[in-house]
Amino acid sequence: MTEEEFDEKFTFKQNHIVPSNEDKFETYGPELDFVRLPENENHVWTAVDGDEGELVFVSGYHFVNRIFYMISNESHNGENIEVIIEFDRD
Known about the structure:
Elements: H1 3-9, H2 29-35, E1 44-49, E2 55-59, E3 66-71, E4 82-85
Antiparallel strand pairs: 1-2, 1-3, 2-4
């Protein structure tokens, strides 16, 4: 899935635990407890470091190379989706 398709299909819940984190949830503590709730299972996305140092959003809960989590309003239905996020390094 391209980044544009991803942005069109998915919107994300705001972090109600630490609002300053916007739509990102930490990998520990109460934020992780919220991410791991059963009702979030098909809505969890893991931001990971890619092989080339890029940021990749992966559907589902992942542990290796995780940076943060996000919870989408729309279900990914357990489908395996990866999205490489392009950003300027300047």
